[in-house]
Write a structure and sequence with these properties.
By secondary structure, the chain is mainly beta. It is built from 1 helix and 12 strands. Strands 1-3-4-5-2 form a 5-stranded antiparallel β-sheet, with no helix packed on it.
Amino acid sequence: MDDVWKAPIGAEVAVAVPTEGAHVEQVTWHGDDDARGDLTVVVARRTADVVTLRLRRGERLVADIRLRRGEARTGRPHGLLRADVGPGATCERLFPVTAEATTDHVSGAEPVLSTPSLIAFMEDTAADVLRPHFGPATESLGTWIGIRHTGPARVGQEVAVTAVLADVRGRRYLFDVEATVDGRPVGDGQVAQTLISLPGRSA
């Protein structure tokens, strides 16, 4: 079935590109595509204006593609930063793994960095790309996460986190993030930060 706007949830469709009058709003990669096996596309979710397509190669989940009706939104000046920050801006930080940042829910196993702590490290690093440019009444909030936690980090180790600005749409800043321990990957994905203007403050 070709019409992604009419196909039932779970139905396989022939294409994963926007139809006329729609655009790709977001792509979330779930892993490396090893190109073995047939690629299939199914309708995962849909509202009146948004449809999410799920790409699989065999049993392997490859990506989710979100389509939205209408023209792609472009960034609008917001005046919340003292200087423009564009794609490619980056920040790298080191985070020590403390006992408070770990989870021990696996019986008999050594405590390891929890996923919420990893996400917090990634969001804080992304925010640090923007913080040096904040106006006096500006802050940012984490508004979206798409993270894979792929390896352990233990108490006493340091997690190196890199955030690279990938896309800007108005107040919303999307970052590619990666975390490693001694060069070994422990997590990757994307997070979004949205700028807000704090009430009661003036520039």
